[in-house]
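REQUEST FORM: STRUCTURE PREDICTION
Request ID: SP-0412
Submitted by: Lab K.M.
Chain count: 1
Length (residues): 406
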Amino acid sequence: MSTLSIEQIKESFPVLQQQVHGKDLVYMDNAATTQKPQVVLDCLNNFYCKDYATVHRGAYLLSEKATSLFEAVRGKVAQFINAQKEKEIIYVKGTTEAINLVANSWGRKNLKEGDEVLISAMEHHANIVPWQMVCEDVGAVLKVIPMDDKGELIMEEFYALLSERTKFVSVVHVSNALGTINPVKEICQAAKSVGAVSLVDGAQSTAHMKVDVQDMGCDFFAFSSHKIYGPSGAGALYGRYELLKAMPPWQGGGDMIYTVSFEKTEYADPPARFEAGTPAITEIIGMGAAIDYLSSLGMDFVAEKEDELLRYGTAALKEIEGLRLIGEASKKAGVLSFVLDKAHPHDIATIVDGEGVSIRAGHHCAQPVMTRFNIPATARASLAIYNTKKDIDALVRALRIVNDIF
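STATUS: Completed
RESULT:
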């Protein structure tokens, strides 16, 4: 566990050491993307300056070094999420591509007319639209686990929906719009009891808590590099190897084959089967550096400090006149979504930006969540390990200015 203070951690992020609009920058749009520590920036720079080459195909030293660095990240990811073996880790552009890969490869091969796919009412569009597309094409039925007014899944309804017709269950670990931590272990176990396959969208959980895919019991798990303090354009999909081995490739091209002829192509085993073309080499290596950084802090330390800040922020926002929190689940990660009686979320975000505070406003790619709470949008402050109580205080001061203006 880290012995660093949050202030010391914040100092290791160069972008945070600046002013915007003449005010110290307070960055709280971490559910969208996180900032990068110096060690990740150094890793990217060093690789480009000293070791850059394409991977897997070169017989020269630079290519061998690049390949070694690139493949080492697979082991880092496997250890970070406690996968059983490195071969269960597939490199992707991010969580969205990972879910699309599973929907188009596993889904199109295994789903048929009348089968059912279960997702939840709090999913990001990336875990809704791919399943809608596949279900429409094959005649399967998409069903939705409802949630209550606190932003928690109604588990009785989940069990009522679950049946022998259920073939796939795909749920978010932590809601990007509400912060709700879902009982994914229970959901995956229930899915397995009816013979269904499960996927957990870990885009919002992997940076904030310890993830153990074996304990969770999921068949697939996806996350994005840029949400865990790494570069954008990279991410990982975990899949149980026996499932990956039986899945057809989603994209064709170089490096995903054993042999190619005009008569027949023989596909490589996973993970190469699902990694067609030249990958995001530098970004994957940068993701490895981000994993090293988080591991050096310790995920228990990260979770403890962020939970403390979330409780502080929740109490502080509730003191603001006319503010209503959207999403008050009993188990939450660092998301504070809210509305104000007097101002639209877009106006809120614009005004607080003038005070140096960066938050997000909109539907957060979760329009069904907004519909469920009968609102067009929320303002959202989302937390990271470098955020402090001073940051929350700055947000509160800025929101009081919003109230004064309106």
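NOTES: The mean pLDDT is 97.
Reviewed by: T.R.
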